[in-house]
């Protein structure tokens, strides 16, 4: 018993898993270093931002090391006895997260959110949440799914209330944590149902079991109907948990209050990092648990082409797949419409961005629905749809970062967060104004900005998938884009056309902040003009995701 | 390097040099003017403006050298033939990609054949001459603000005195560089999207150049008019492009030409639509009837611009495009093109005979000559039409530069205020005479000696004669150019008589001076082109037409008959080159010219009488009735616009939108009300959501189980 354990430790953990988890290890080391640096008086003088920045950069460096040979060369392997999965998607998404972490560390220092004295608290929470998100991005096991979500969520609750003494902040943190706890409970219930019904907690095994179950044939047997109902319920409950993390309707209620109450920097983190991780996790769940023809076929060798042809008509999990497509498509359509409608009448910039975040969750769910629908017959097409999600998410990272960073910068100079107060900003703070406008137009999805290509890829995936659900989503997406024109461009109009207030002097943010805004906004334009590189990376990341 | 690598490299250099000059002058110009005043259009001091001009001239010089080298490389790779050899393969490829959306791939692509290299040389040669010429012509534009500021008496001011403004020579060269870049883009383009993009860019730079004296209401209006007229044509062009995409799924010329025979067989109607649509764009750009009205007005721009943009190159882009897309055109479209060209050449030549404005005469002459080119292309004379494009670029640029020289000296465009200038300006007069002779196509048919226009006009007549022989019912397509040739000779003789012969009819004409050398030298260069562009290189068969003939589309080699109008047959190269056809064409052309010259000499009594018979009503037609047609269209459009913006837009659409917006807003407000901020409610909503979603899902699952 013991020798096997030791051997396993040596082979699996030390030989295979730890070398492929260097970024996570670095994050943990940085957290410990941040905490310990407080203890000796000599180290107390060091500004924690340097430790955090070093840690984040080293983690990013480790990750780039993982991607050394190109994303396409990464062979999927299971780490830590099947707990985690190491593949191109994991590397790509964690790359986005860690790059975003570096940007967040710099931003929070520049805007003064992480001060010299208690920056540690902020950074420890930030790094802890990122660690959880990295786990979410690689989850291969129901336990790591739940663990990752919780590790990402709990520090986020505290981050929302990081500014002490502000009532709204504290209230938002409390709301977030209570709502989050309730959602986590629901999800745990679903997870346990799933594990119980299928007798496994390992995601690929779950997929195999679901395929073996032959849901379609169960329906004919009256005594087994309960199983189907329980499976459906399990699926719904797990998706509720995901919907909470993505702020998808009808589980989005926390988002506006939390975004409005939290500092803008934390808003950026929640809207980008949290959402990216949740999207990747959802992609993993639907690509692993909902079996696609090929993997089952590989399990039954020797029967050849005729079986494959038969399978292509209706896979063993076709009813489950159709069910999930319906759920996600409905959620996407409702979320998108609701977010855009509510954003129309917002006056506070952070609340506007909160609803914009909700709306974008809707857009982002659409290609996922398309991917699931495509997986049945066209695995390459499904991977393409997943790549659309990742392309969208990568562009969204820069867009929302710039938007929230600009909000933070304006808060520091004008002391205001309502849209009316942004009047004439183009004349008093041109860099901030241009960055913010670029972000708004990019979020709207106009060419030649990066948001356009993500949206285009998403819509293309819907067209490729076809069918009534997808046509519905297509119509909803297009109508919503037209709708969102109103509130995004209203902000641009306020900034560019309205007269600045009389008393507004020169209120440009500090030079480093302007530089950061420029660095955040430049990719919006550059990746918009030359999106091929990013699209190729996203494509490689999702290659073979659906077999 | 092999030609297929060398040619694109050279032409890329030729293409990008003006762009570099544009960027440099735009940046330098704005930096300098900021230093000098801060506001838009601030002054740039004279020396700096000249430096910018030198940079632009240097850049176009580089382009010229590169183009000439490219021409040399082409000739080296393609030994001269007798013009009946199969078409030389074009070098097609891409410098860099720009856009990839689904099946649509757009890049900076090139399609290099003999037409491309010849056009590139013509464009850069004339452009270089115009760049140099402008230093003299626009010398006063280097003035600073203040005492020696440019005085513009055609621009109104609030106080009724002359407008005084700073010079803007740097602007002029900046726009000129942009134009050269755009024009070369049209010439080199390897796909229809690139053609369209640069097509619009030449339009934009033409707008800027026509409106160079933007304080003058006439210039501003002319710039707008040119823009609007071209938009009308471009609508058709867009339709053509859409049809092309629908038909072929590619914009790449090489692939399109390869596919064309297939779709001509399968989708004849759509192919006709493609050709007709694209030709609409050419009607606008090349000022063909009914969109000819903008070109005479465009003469409100500086005269060097008229020479380069509005006679030699940009307006010829329409002809060039017809030549480029020739393999895509069906017989019906070609006959349409020929008819439009025939009508245009008559209208242009008639109106050129009566105008009292020197530049307007030349503008209508350009319209008329473009009509000849279109006619020739439409009749299957691909080589002849494009050959005429080349020769016309030379002699018309010469005529315009000469006109600029005259206007520079006399200070007016009015022919009635000129006369007798040959004594004061002998060099200009001599050079103009060369241009005039080339335009009327002077030469000796038996000996085969003549100026450039003689050869190209003869070539066009060959096709007209051959076409009229095969299609007797379309004989008017022969008579129209014949009458046009009489008129051409007449109006250009009139122009020469009224300007240079006789006695000075105004104070200024008496005291005119010859123009500076910087203006005369470029004129001499284009004069050389006007004389020799039709000649073969001594000791070889190499000439412009033989060069062009190498790349003549396959379709021109044999006779073609229309599908819808089966009565029409386009003659092939062979039938146009029959001995008796050539003889008939030669005598017809030279006879018409002689008739025209003689009648003009008689009518204007050797330059003592300005008025042409029936001149007043014709001018009335030109200056009043033709614009009133545009005004009528304008009025209809306004009425329609008023209806659309009034009852339709404000009433129905706005009302509907306002209603929808109100609905959305109230929905948004409703959603906001749900967002109460109460945590207890949120958790309640969460639970409610879970229950409702689960119930709905289970309901769906149950229905599925039960069938």
Explain what this protein looks like in three dimensions.
- The complex is a heterodimer of chains A (547) and B (707).
- Chain A has one domain.
- Chain A contains 24 helices and 2 strands.
- Chain A has helices at residues 2-17, 22-36, 41-44, 48-66, 88-110, 119-138, 142-160, 167-198, 203-213, 215-218, 225-246, 254-261, 264-288, 293-299, 304-313, 318-344, 349-375, 379-414, 425-428, 430-444, 450-465, 468-496, 511-529, 532-542; strands at residues 77-79, 84-86.
- In chain A, strands 1-2 form a two-stranded antiparallel sheet.
- With 707 residues, chain B is mainly α.
- Chain B has helices at 3-36, 46-77, 114-137, 169-188, 192-210, 217-248, 253-266, 268-285, 294-297, 303-312, 316-324, 331-352, 358-378, 382-410, 421-424, 426-440, 452-470, 476-500, 507-510, 517-532, 544-550, 573-576, 579-603, 615-674, 679-705, and strands spanning 91-101, 104-112, 150-152, 163-165, 443-444, 449-450, 560-561, 569-570.
- A two-stranded antiparallel ribbon of chain B has the order 1-2.
- In chain B, a hairpin with a 4-residue loop joins strand 5 (443-444) and strand 6.
- In chain B, helix 5 (192-210) packs antiparallel against helix 6 (217-248), helix 13 packs antiparallel against helix 18 and helix 14 (382-410) runs antiparallel to helix 20 (517-532).
- The mean pLDDT of chain B is 86.
- The chains are: A mainly alpha (547), B mainly alpha (707).
- The interface between A and B is medium-sized, with 38 and 32 residues.
- Chain B: The chain crosses the membrane at residues 12-32, 52-77, 108-133, 172-190, 196-214, 235-253, 265-284, 305-327, 333-354, 361-383, 389-410, 431-456, 476-497, 518-537, 584-603, 682-705.
